[in-house]
Amino acid sequence: MYLKAGELHGHYCPGLAIGVRAGAEALRILEVEKKGFNLYCIAENRACYQDGIQMVFGTTLGDGNLELRQRGKTAFNFYDRDTGKSVRLVMSDWPKKSDRKEMAEFILSAPLEQVFAQTPVHFDAPPNTFTRHESRKCPRCGEFCSEPFLRVVDGEIVCLDCAES
């Protein structure tokens, strides 16, 4: 799966390996029987990890089931909303290797407890719902904007960018 994730990501690196391994371990720990809108992940840092998680765990930014809550930590909160199971995987303090390929190999093959600590999740997963919203054209900039992101300014319904300027 690491090779396929690298095709999506554009290169192979330890960060991608972390995401691939975290996603695979989450599937195993949560005993996921099917992938779909039941799966959700909240990542606590933006980095290469997300592409590995998308490829293995099956949640994506596009389907709204991969979320970033920037905390600066290499930590991932995984949920199966069908079963109610969840797990948080946090990068352990592992031996640093000088070679990136060697580091990725360690991440992908070392025993779980050497790569991640398991803790209770830090956030509640949002409900398994998807609401499609209409878009409206902003009269100021002319761009279409989803209704939840429109604001009334001086009696005019405008997008967030125009509302804030």
Give a brief outline of the structure:
32% of the residues lie in helices and 24% in strands. It has 165 residues and is an alpha+beta fold. A 5-stranded mixed β-sheet has the order 2-1-3-4-5. A two-stranded antiparallel ribbon has the order 6-7. Strands 8-9 form a two-stranded antiparallel ribbon.
Describe this structure in words.
With 165 residues, the chain is α+β, with helices and mostly antiparallel strands. It has two domains: 118 residues, 60s Ribosomal Protein L30, Chain: A; 30 residues, no CATH class. The chain has six helices and nine strands. The strands form three sheets. It has a five-stranded mixed beta sheet with strand order 2-1-3-4-5. It has a two-stranded antiparallel sheet with strand order 6-7. Strands 8-9 form a two-stranded antiparallel sheet. The N and C termini lie far apart (45 Å). The mean pLDDT is 92.
The termini sit apart by 45 Å
Proportion of residues in helical segments: 25-40%
Helix/strand/pairing category: alpha+beta
Mean pLDDT: 92
Residue fraction in strands: 15-25%
N-to-C SSE string, H for helix and E for strand = HHEHEEEHHEEEEEH
Strand line-up of the largest beta sheet: 2-1-3-4-5
CATH class descriptor of the largest domain: Alpha Beta
Radius of gyration: 19 Å
User: In the CATH scheme, what's the topology name of the largest domain?
Assistant: 60s Ribosomal Protein L30, Chain: A
Question: Structurally, how many domains make up the residues?
Answer: 2
The CATH architecture of the largest domain can be given as 2-Layer Sandwich
Can you tell me the overall shape?
elongated
The number of strands is 9
Largest sheet data? 5 strands, mixed
* Number of H/I helices: 6
What low-confidence regions span 5 or more consecutive residues with pLDDT below 50? none
